[in-house]
Amino acid sequence: MQQLILDWWPIIASTLALIVWLLRIEAKVVRNSEELKRVESRFIEQRKEDMGERQHQFDFVNTTLTGIQQDIKEILKSNATQEK
Fold first, then answer.
1. Which of 33, 13, 31 is nearest to 21 (CA)?
2. Widest distance between CA atoms in the chain
3. How far is CA 83 from the centre of its chain?
């Protein structure tokens, strides 16, 4: 038995090292998957916030442009009545 171990110890040691290496890689994959989920949820939340802010800005611009449009119409009407 001792001779068998002495003859095969490099193969046994390399097999154990391979198993340890594979376990470490699996742990890294699990950590990266969890981090990816966290980043994805933060991205989704940030996107919702950005879309809400963008809609608010669009509403503001639309209101401002509507006011400008009304002002231009009033100016054109007053110019048309002054020319008559």
1. 13
2. 119
3. 59
> What is d(CA 47, CA 77) in angstroms, rounded to the nearest whole number?
44
32-41 pLDDT, tens digit per residue, is: 999 999 999 9
Q: Which two tokens stand for residue 42?
A: 């933060």
Six-digit token string for 14:
């390399």
Mapped to the 3 state alphabet, what secondary structure does the chain carry?
A: CHHHHHHHHHHHHHHHHHHHHHHHHHHHHHHHHHHHHHHHHHHHHHHHHHHHHHHHHHHHHHHHHHHHHHHHHHHHHHHHHHHC
pLDDT above 90 covers what percent of the chain? 81
Looking up tokens 């990816």 gives 36
Q: Given CA atoms 46, 47, 48, 49 in this order, what sign does their dihedral have?
A: positive
